[in-house]
Design a protein that fits this description.
356 residues, TIM Barrel, Elongation Factor Tu (Ef-tu), domain 3, eight-stranded mixed beta sheet, 11 helices
Length: 356
């Protein structure tokens, strides 16, 4: 069975470093747990490192963490569906919102449960994912402030995720100005003016003025040590808190090029033999690993062994050109992971999770 080794000390170290760095700029962090499926052990590590707020996009993950005794304030970072309003109010302290109909239902349910639910209004700043258009903010704020059972905690925005728009001086200043104008007009103070995610790292380190922005939602930078516009390694952080390990189940010489008419793969993708310049004569030593796309996204794995090539994957096997390396059946290969690969591995029930 393939496995994922999770180094809690490295996650703790990254969380501590990021907390210290961001706090020095008067920025609080919502530690994002969604890529780990809300794993309680990892969540507790974030809390131990100083995270007061944890955010997740799945209410079932938040429920899992709460039931495991994780001591934090929980923030639902995806707009609640109407069908899950009851669970969101029950398990999440705060949620990100952009639809007034959803907020009204949260208000009704909060009254029913005799609770106060926090609202962060998301504002569209160019990436075209979730959020009110800036000229809608005043109208929606006015309506939210009139509702019982909910408390307007702040505003937020999100960049880089959908259209790939980068956080920069211009859009961060515009967002900060919206917060300033809104607070002044309604005589309120936002607890959260949440400017984005790990992609904001470059802006945060280069700007001379963060404006009113006082919060970021950080997952990738803590867990994988990467951030910024190009998702590059952040100096001083650990990049290998997660290691994916799979076993060689077949190892033999095979022709360098297929025999027969080449078409698309089982996933409907162009054959790698048409996409890449593989030699049409000779042999290579090829290994099959006991993991495939039901477990991992092989294109987002980084081999820890030099001079091997991940060719492609089927549902059940990753195909490796081992080149000049010497292996035998039963040997293991180890990989670092990018975000998408980690998401797959944590989600797959066929990948064993081991904490070290």
């Amino acid at each position: 069975m393939p496995r994922l080794e999770i180094d809690l000390k490295k996650i703790f170290y990254n969380a501590k470093r990021m907390n210290q760095l961001f706090n020095s700029k008067n920025i609080s962090i919502i530690g994002i747990t969604k890529v780990t499926l809300g794993d309680p052990t990892i969540a507790k590590t974030l809390v131990d490192a100083g995270m007061q707020y944890l955010g997740d996009s799945r209410i079932s993950n938040i429920k899992r963490m709460k039931e495991a005794g994780v001591n934090a304030q929980f923030i639902m970072i995806r707009s609640p569906a109407l069908s899950e309003i009851s669970s969101v109010v029950k398990h999440a302290d705060i949620s990100l919102n952009s639809e007034i109909e959803v907020i009204k239902r949260l208000s009704e349910e909060s009254i029913h449960q005799n609770k106060k639910h926090g609202i962060i209004l998301m504002v569209e700043m160019g990436d075209l994912r979730e959020g009110l258009m800036p000229d809608e903010v005043d109208s929606i704020v006015k309506q939210v402030l009139e509702l019982k059972g909910v408390e307007l905690c702040g505003i937020g925005t999100n960049l880089k995720c959908f259209a790939g728009v980068s956080p920069d001086e211009r859009n961060m200043k515009e967002f900060s100005d919206i917060a300033k104008k809104t607070q002044k007009k309604f005589n309120i103070n936002f607890k959260f003016i949440s400017g984005g995610n790990s992609a904001n790292y470059d802006w945060l380190m280069s700007t001379k003025d963060v404006g009113l922005i006082n919060n970021l939602r950080i997952g990738t930078a803590i867990l994988l040590g990467h951030g910024g516009i190009n998702d590059e390694p952040i100096p001083g952080l650990q990049y290998d808190a997660f290691t994916f390990i799979a076993e060689i189940v077949e190892l033999r010489k095979k022709p360098s090029y297929p025999k027969g008419t080449i078409n698309k793969s089982a996933f409907g993708e162009p054959s790698i033999f048409l996409e890449k310049n593989y030699p049409k004569v000779g042999e290579r030593v090829q290994a099959l690993l006991n993991a495939g796309r039901q477990d991992i996204l092989e294109t987002k794995l980084i081999p820890k062994i030099k001079n091997i090539e991940i060719m492609s994957a089927t549902s059940d096997y990753i195909v490796i050109d081992v080149k000049e390396n010497k292996f035998k059946v039963g040997d293991e290969m180890r990989f670092n992971l990018e975000y998408e690969a980690l998401l797959c591995a944590m989600t797959s029930p066929f990948v064993l999770k081991i904490f070290i």
